Amino acid sequence: MAALGLLSTLFPISQTALAQNDLAGDFVAPAVFQAAGPTAASIQSTVDAYRAALGDPNNANNPGPLSSGRREINWDGGNPAIMDTTPPVTPFDVFLNIRGARFTTPGEGLSQAPPSGGPQGGLAVLFNNPTYATIFTTFSPSRLFTPVGSRVTDGSFFIPGTSGASPATVSGFGVVFTDVDLPDGGKPHKASTLIEYFDRNGKRIFASFVPSSPGDASLSFIGIKFNDAPIASVRITTDAVPGKNDNRKHDIVMMDDFIYGEPQPLQ
């Protein structure tokens, strides 16, 4: 499949409808950045454009609140040589204090793991499915992020350095995915991989399917950016619970880099 490199503020009808059905009054649509293709190069320019739109610098582990910049999580533990598979846990608070993000799942927990290898064997061992060693790839080595026992990952934002004591909102949130095979919208009457964005009151303000690139070890990216910072939480829903074989009935998807606007104090 030819690589896609899309940078646009125009959306398919399905995306616009998902955004506007939950809203009353005027809705100012965010800028949408999306790309998909067989290699990291297929999405690199779009990811870089999204980083630029959120703003420099990458604030890393610096405490907030900060007036500008962005945060990133790439699951490598600060060193691509780290290949450990972490036990499933929820809430996943590894980055709560240093990056201002908490992740939860209604399943068993959330884990970081390489596709294969490392002391615990990676995703192939975590899910007892040897095919996982070859159908996924990383955008930034060496680990991916996944729910265990669920297809749902929820995220919420806080001021970095407050250990979750100060809720926050962000201007944008984007994710790199690997092996999104189903076309946008998925099977008839069933969503493919979906991201939903919510405001401080839990009201959905935008939702979009993730662009697909059929074939093993493909990469996809989608991120949005508002002019202000209305996003208090996000929900990522993949097509199927990991563990099953990846096929036409079950599109198994893993996550890599999370990139989001600098968390701002809740107004």
Task: Count every beta strand, where a strand is a DSSP E run of 2 or more residues.
Answer: 15
Termini Cα gap: 44 Å
Spatial order of strands in the largest sheet: 1-2-12-9-14-3
Residues in β-strands, percent:
25-35%
**H/E element sequence:** EHEHEHEEHHEEEEEEEEEE
Q: What is the general shape?
A: globular
Number of helices: 5
Q: Unreliable segments (pLDDT under 50, ≥5 consecutive)?
A: 1-17
Q: How many structural domains does the protein architecture include?
A: 1
Using the 3D structure, state the CATH architecture.
Sandwich
In this structure, how is the largest beta sheet organized? 6 strands, antiparallel
Instruction: Give the fraction of residues assigned to helices.
Output: 10-25%
Mean of residue pLDDT values: 90
Indicate the radius of gyration in whole angstroms.
17 Å
Structural class: alpha+beta
CATH class: Mainly Beta
According to CATH, the fold-level topology is Jelly Rolls
List the helices and strands and how they pair.
Blueprint: E1 4-8, H1 13-20, E2 31-37, H2 41-54, E3 70-73, H3 96-99, E4 101-104, E5 109-113, H4 122-126, H5 132-135, E6 144-148, E7 152-157, E8 168-169, E9 172-178, E10 194-198, E11 204-209, E12 219-225, E13 233-237, E14 254-261, E15 264-265
Antiparallel strand pairs: 1-2, 2-12, 3-14, 4-7, 5-6, 7-13, 8-15, 9-12, 9-14, 10-11, 10-13
Key words describing this protein structure:
267 residues, 15 strands, alpha+beta, 5 helices, 5-stranded antiparallel beta sheet, Jelly Rolls, 6-stranded antiparallel beta sheet
